[in-house]
Every structure is written in C-alpha cells, then in structure tokens.
C-alpha cells in the first residue's frame, strides 16, 4: 500500500530514531494521526524547541541551554576534579549516585577511526586546552572497557601526562560507556571510591 505523501514523510521521519524500523514508525504515525493530534503537535513543538534551543556546554560538552550547563555553573562543584564520560547518560548515572562532587567532560562517543570518530570529534582538543590551563588536578576516567573505550582512555592519559595531571580510573566491574544508567547508585559510588591510578 502506498501512503499519502505527508503520511509517508512522517513515517520516514520516525525511522531516524534508534530501534525504530518501518513497522514501528508506521504504528507511531498512525497512532498520532488517528487519535493523538494534540500530542502530535506537542511532540512537534518539543522537537522544534529542543533542536533549536539545546547546545553543548562550552566547558564539558554536555547538553546545555546556556553557555554553561547547570553542573559547570554550580560554584559548589570542584573544578579540579573532572570525570571523563562517554555520554550524557553516564553523567546522569553519576549524579544519581550522589557520590561525585567534581565536574565532567562528556566525549559524546569514543575513539573509533574506522567510523570517522577521531580526537576532534570527541572534543579532545578542548580537553587538552583545559588541562593546559592548570585548573584540573585529577582526571577520573569512566570510559568503557571496549576496544574503543580503552583507546580513548589511553589517548586521554597521554594528554593528561603531557600536562602533568594525575589520572585515575573507576574500579572495574561495572559496564561503562553509555551503560552506566543500568548500574545502581551504590555500585557506582563504590566504583568511584575504589578508583585506581591509571598508567600507560
Ligand atoms: Zn558543563
């Protein structure tokens, strides 16, 4: 069956979401058209608002609606202690653990040259600049234990060593790299307290 052009366009648009194939996209489109016009309009407004209004924090690269995110602009957070994470969901996991009082640096990915993700795509030039500025005393690495996570961790270690900044890594045994959301707060707090010096 061929859809009307606008319906087809809506279905196609939904397929950009992770885990949404053509069938689910079609169900979503029909659900909104059949009985959710107001919700659909709210969805469209929310998408417009977020796409135009959400940028990256200039300090940590997490999503922000101002130059600095709420964590980076909070004077109670220790600017000398910076936790390196792969994704914004990792930040949420640490925040929910209630254990961490430092700041973050969010890579928004991990090094993966074959996919065209190099140091620049992860903002590692920004991190290098921050390390040189001298305010950071310790970096805590919480990138994943996959090949990409390890490569990223070693790249960051080199940057930190060049700048004379000490590096530790959270205790192993928790899945990392976008998966910290599945770790309970107590486990994550323990992994943070059990962090070890990280060396090449
Ligand atoms: Zn920030």
UniProtKB/TrEMBL annotation:
Record-level GO BP terms: DNA recombination; DNA repair
What residue stretch is flagged as signal peptide?
Answer: none
Q: Does the keyword Transit peptide apply?
A: no
Gene Ontology terms, MF aspect: DNA binding; zinc ion binding
Zinc finger (C4-type) stretch: 57-72
- The Toprim domain covers which part of the protein? 80-175
Q: Which ranges of the sequence are coiled-coil? A: none
* Record HAMAP family: RecR (MF_00017)
Name recorded for this polypeptide: Recombination protein RecR
Task: Tell me which species this is from.
Answer: Alcanivorax hongdengensis A-11-3
The gene it comes from is recR
């Amino acid at each position: 069956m061929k859809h009307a052009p606008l319906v087809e366009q809506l279905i196609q648009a939904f397929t950009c979401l992770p885990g949404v194939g053509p069938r689910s996209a079609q169900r979503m489109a029909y659900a909104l058209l059949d009985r959710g016009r107001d919700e659909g309009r709210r969805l469209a407004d929310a998408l417009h608002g977020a796409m135009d209004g959400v940028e990256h924090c200039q300090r940590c690269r997490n999503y922000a609606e101002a130059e600095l995110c709420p964590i980076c602009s909070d004077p109670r957070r220790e600017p000398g202690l910076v936790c390196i994470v792969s994704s914004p969901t990792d930040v949420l996991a640490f925040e929910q653990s209630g254990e961490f009082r430092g700041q973050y640096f969010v890579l928004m990915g991990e090094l993966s040259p074959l996919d065209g993700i190099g140091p620049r795509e992860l903002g590692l030039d920004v991190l290098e600049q921050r390390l040189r500025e001298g305010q950071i005393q310790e970096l805590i690495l919480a990138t994943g234990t996959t090949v990409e996570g390890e490569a990223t961790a070693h790249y960051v270690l080199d940057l930190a060593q060049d700048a004379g900044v000490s590096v530790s890594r959270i205790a192993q045994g928790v899945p990392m790299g976008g998966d910290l959301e599945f770790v309970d707060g107590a486990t994550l707090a323990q992994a943070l307290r059990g962090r070890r010096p990280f060396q090449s």
